[in-house]
Amino acid sequence: MTTDLTVSAQRLTVEHETLYRYARAVDMAQHIACLRPLSDEGQVLEQFEMSVSPLPAQHSTRRDAFGNSRAYFAINAAHKELKVVARSQVQVRARYQGLDPAKGATCGEVRELLTYRAEAPFQSASEFAYASPYVPTHDELRDYGAQSLKDDRPLAEAVIELMNRIHADFTYAPASTDISTPILAVFDQRKGVCQDFAHLMLGCLRACGLAGRYVSGYLLTLPPEGQAPLVGADASHAWVSVWCPGLGLPAGDWLDLDPTNDCVPDTHHVRVAHGRDFGDVTPLRGVIRGGGKHTLLVRVTTRLVKEGLKELTQAPK
To answer: Is the dihedral of CA 199, 203, 125, 172 positive or negative?
Structure first.
């Protein structure tokens, strides 16, 4: 049985531009782009286009194992510059209205559901409960997470507290790390960027036997009142999604949390993809022949088209 719910929504546009400049000509290149936002009951992708210059000789799209859209393209002509521009228009709906963190399963109950038992039914969330290339499990992360993730606590309540603690204990410091910075280095220096905050929280969850996904996307950052939006001021963003069965919300069993901003994502967050860590959802990657040294420029602009929309949607069966 389904129930119609009236939810608020906002319509956002996103322009994501990636520009590579090479010291020498690239003879051949093959790339994978993960730039098309998700479209589901909580987010409706209304328009999407992606342009590539120089024009690819081959171009195809398909879904990966996590349900994300990936674009594959090959460039066979020599080039010293690669430009990829993705433009999206998305209606983002509030998915966590009525959230009561005291409801749902406890940490201990969810741990038990994720624990392997012979002949037990497969739990699909379990694939996000184990170490991954960018999120190894460490005793330090287990000890830090265990302060919040106690067996008898409601999981939603506990993970929100963990998010609060990470936000309070760690400093957001642009350019303080890069993707090669180990998660323990971030933990020790107590600072990083949004992908570090996401990896850190995932490391705590998984070390404590819980399941969490890495979410890539965009965040609408509002300028001060009376000031125009700054083109290129926004950037790609990252947060986490925790498997919290039993909350009874339209969003289902996954609860999104943004430790960088200490909030439950609402209509300011645009979801592009989810996976085990950054490596599964890298916006653009590939292999090239030639090129030498290169420079990279990324510009993201997220703008509000219309706010306060009222939409009818259906809760999951």
So the answer is: negative
Instruction: Specify the amino acid at residue 230.
Output: L
pTM: 0.92
The number of residues in the chain equals 317
- What is the spatial distance between Cα 35 and Cα 62, in angstroms, rounded to a whole number? 12
Give the 3-state secondary structure of 72-121: EEEECCCEEEEEEEEEEEEEEECCCCCCCCCCCCEHHHHHHHHCCCCCCC
pLDDT tens for 122-158 read 899 999 999 999 999 999 999 999 999 999 999 999 9
Residue the block writes with tokens 């404590």 = 208
List, in sequence order, every residue forming a beta bridge with 10; answer none if it has no partner.
92
Token duo for residue 152: 């008898």
- Reading phi first (left if > 0) and then psi (alpha if -120 to 50, else beta), residue 23 is in alpha
C-alpha pair distances (Å), 177 with each of 174, 186, 215: 8, 8, 19
How far apart are the two ends of the chain, measured CA to CA in Å? Answer: 6
Q: Which two tokens stand for residue 24?
A: 């020498």
Q: Which of 210, 213, 222, 203 is nearest to 251 (CA)?
A: 213
In this predicted model, what pLDDT tens digit does every residue of 75-115 receive, in sequence order? 999 999 999 999 999 999 999 999 999 999 999 999 999 99
